[in-house]
Design the sequence.
């Protein structure tokens, strides 16, 4: 089959640009390393340099960070139970995603960082791990990797595929290349009909795209009872408790201001604070201490003390359980144009949920939750603070939102079953695979 000359030209131009930018990737890793020490480690993986031979082929799954790893977990667990003989290679981009992979599966799966999308690194990665099937979560569209899989006859499935209107617009310059790369994918399993339509608009063939629903509805929430029982030994149920979850640098001052206003009306109020990124843990603690508040941390005192006004959850993997300790949750990444974070987790844990207006990464979920009465979407930080206070004072409204949220999560399940029906028959047949 003749190569598409336009594809060759576009890939060549794209790859040249990436090779020219490689020195900047070193600067980026150093810059991130000063904030998160883990970025100083395992650089060889970023460039697909591996010390040992690749060994037997694997099923490969890519999940960029914590949220995508959590969404993929039910799929991986079900497929591993179905075929325990198959080896898995799971890639992430962030250290927190890496930590989540190890927390979920330990050494039972192989894990490396996804290499940069330059042809040499892509070739070394695919040659080393020899994946027989590639499963990519959400919106990771790396052209050279997709073309590399096609050239090696590796079927690629984009699972829980999400493409916001904002992201579609952002792909405008690269659309001729990304559209061609998308057409090499075997199937795009989209979260919604809107996502499916946008993938087609980006370049996917309509027959490639299915709307299977959102895997985040099928996440298996942890049993919060052990943690909640100990929490209640330190914090009585009569105290007003709210949680600010997945907050970003530009939102931290707003959280402090919200809590200051709340303390004026409820002096015994407690803020549970879980910044999105570990490098922000110390900053959140410092901002609270600057107000003269009593602060405890999960890694320090382990639990809020009687005089604690702020409790910083500076650990990973415990956020969902701590949602159950709060009466109201504010989910960050939504007061600035980040696009929001997982709103289903507090709903699944029985916590009334409040968010800011910037929700383009969770447009479908936020719309459904809003229509069900399970979410309060606020225009700005002041409205978020007022809504948190109102809900802390209105038990009836909180309980109504909690019931609506739990019903929505229960009714939204099913994407996992449909995804397993799609992917299960594709698993390698050889017992040695």
Sequence:
């Amino acid at each position: 089959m003749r190569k598409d000359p336009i594809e060759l030209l576009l890939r060549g131009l794209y790859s040249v640009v990436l090779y020219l930018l490689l020195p900047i990737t070193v600067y980026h890793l150093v810059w991130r390393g000063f904030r998160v020490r883990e970025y100083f480690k395992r650089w060889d993986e970023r460039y697909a340099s591996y010390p040992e031979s690749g060994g037997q082929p694997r099923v490969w799954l890519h999940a960029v960070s914590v949220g995508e790893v959590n969404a993929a977990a039910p799929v991986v667990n079900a497929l591993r139970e179905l075929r325990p003989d198959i080896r898995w290679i799971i890639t992430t981009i962030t250290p927190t995603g890496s930590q989540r992979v190890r927390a979920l599966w330990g050494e039972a799966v192989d894990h490396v960082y996804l290499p940069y999308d330059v042809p040499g690194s892509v070739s070394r990665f695919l040659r080393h791990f020899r994946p027989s099937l590639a499963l990519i979560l959400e919106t990771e569209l790396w052209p050279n990797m997709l073309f590399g899989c096609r050239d090696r006859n590796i079927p690629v499935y984009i699972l829980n595929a999400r493409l916001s209107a904002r992201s579609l617009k952002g792909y405008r310059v690269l659309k001729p290349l990304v559209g061609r790369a998308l057409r090499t994918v075997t199937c795009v399993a989209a979260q919604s009909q809107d996502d499916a339509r946008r993938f087609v608009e980006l370049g996917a063939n309509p027959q490639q795209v299915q709307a299977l629903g959102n895997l985040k509805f099928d996440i298996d929430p942890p049993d919060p009872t052990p943690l909640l029982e100990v929490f209640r030994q330190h914090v009585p149920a009569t105290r007003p408790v709210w949680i600010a979850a997945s907050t970003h640098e530009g939102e931290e001052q707003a959280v402090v201001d919200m809590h200051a206003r709340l303390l004026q009306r409820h002096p015994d109020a407690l803020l549970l604070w879980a910044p999105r990124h570990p490098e922000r843990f110390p900053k959140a603690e410092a901002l609270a201490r600057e107000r003269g508040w009593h602060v405890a941390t999960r890694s320090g005192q382990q639990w809020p003390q009687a005089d604690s006004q702020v409790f910083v959850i500076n650990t990973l993997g415990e956020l969902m359980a701590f949602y159950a300790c709060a009466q109201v949750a504010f989910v960050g990444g939504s007061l600035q144009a980040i696009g929001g974070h997982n709103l289903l987790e507090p709903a699944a844990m029985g916590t009334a949920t409040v968010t800011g207006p910037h929700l383009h990464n969770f447009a479908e979920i936020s719309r459904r939750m809003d229509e069900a009465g399970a979410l309060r979407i606020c225009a700005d930080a002041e409205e978020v603070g007022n809504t948190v206070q109102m809900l802390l004072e209105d038990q009836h409204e909180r309980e109504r939102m909690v019931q609506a949220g739990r019903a929505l999560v229960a009714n939204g399940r099913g994407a996992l079953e449909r995804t397993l029906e799609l992917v299960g028959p594709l698993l390698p047949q050889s017992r040695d695979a």
Q: What stands out?
A: The radius of gyration is 23 Å. Residues 184 and 314 are 42 Å apart (CA to CA). The domain at 50-219+415-426 is CATH 3.40.50.11720 (Rossmann fold).
